[in-house]
Amino acid sequence: MRFLFRAFGGLLLLVLALALLGVAAVKLKNSFSEKAESSFKTKYGKERVYTAYVEKLKATQVKPRIMAYGEAKSWRSLELRAASSGRLEFLSENFREGGMVRVGELLYKIDPREADDLVKVAEVNLLEANAEYNEAQTTFSLVQSDLSYSEEQLELRQIALKRQKSLNDSGIVTTSAVENSELLLSNAYQAVATKKNLLSQASARITRSKISVIRAEISLDQARRQLLDNEYRAPFAGIISRVSVVPGRLLNKNEQLGVLIDAEALEVGFQVSNLEFARMVDDDGKIIPLRIKVIKDVQENSLILSGIVQRVGAEVIPGTAGRQVFASLEGDRSGMIRAGDFLMVEIEETPLENVAIIPSTAVDADGKLLLLGENNRLEETQVEVLRRQSDKVIVSKVPFGREYVIDRPPYLGEGLRVKPLRPGESERTASQSGSKNKKDEMVELSQEERSALINFVQKNGRMPKEVKDSIVEKLEETKVPLSLVLRFKSRMEAN
User: Fold this and answer.
1) What mean pLDDT, rounded, does the chain reach?
2) Domain match, 124 and 168 both
């Protein structure tokens, strides 16, 4: 039982100690608050109040934009080069810088005489090759006939030798007759071998002549194509650029005459940073076909076209960072966009929900925002900066409906009391609403304070001389308006 009383007593002492600590903490907090509040007060007993422009935080849906600058390019262009050497006989009237040509239109014609001569030479060479081929075939046939005759003679000599040997065994013919038959048989063998060798040579001659015929046919085809290439027609409609020839000029083979650009195949290439590019690809690293807006300034008006992001450049351009991106161009029916034009590109990103768009001057480098709290005292809160666009920032994780400081100068901070100015209100209007029918309080200044204020006013280079003189005259009086003192002291502290 005594143990229970002791335990209960210990618990009671613990609770009492915690309560005392809580009371002490509250008093300490109030003490700090009073001290902080007193620091805002001047020796005149007035708390310094700063003017601050405020606005409500509104939740909205935003389509972030990436701004870039690019160049119009054509993904289909063709260098026009001379297929053969010769004199330029004909050049289309549209074959000039900026000329529009139709598909199938005759662009130029080179003097065909040289190419025609080449065709004739190739035809003669083909005739000679065919003649040689025919002669080789005839020779092969003759040698083949001689070989057949020689083989028949060989068979007869073999039969004759066999008969002579039989007669010699019977004693009818002499040994010399047998020997003569053997000699004739040997000569027959030699004749067959010679004819086979000649037949092989005739067969090889046929092969060589056939190859010559094929080569002559190829040369003739090339000469005929060259003759046809002397007349060149446009494979697609487009614009002529980089013209370097005139009719009558002697051309070298493969010499460039100009460039044909397909005006319907225009696209825009532009550079984005690595951070921006990361927002333009999906989880698999593939480019997202985002919609874009392309703007070309034309004097007072601007030509606006649409397009879709299509692909990424194959390599990084030396000396640059980020990625090169290409997008299609749609809807240019005016012909205002040409390859090489400088364009402004606006890329629409994926929409962001429950965010606020505020001036960039409202958020400091650490992503903190000043809110208008109770009794017009400032409170500081942490926000998440999602995007920075020109003079605006897109933020999330903010207390929607609360008022925030639009433009925070260095001297504003948490705990300070401010006079809020809302959109549509001027400083004078706010001052009048806060002090209706109340005469400005007059205070006396020490010599040091008076000298410091007068010196500050006189050194202000932006203030007109007449205004300076008027303010200095007021500051030299025995009593000075408190509002005037507070205004210039706040400026002095800000500087």
Assistant:
1) 81
2) yes
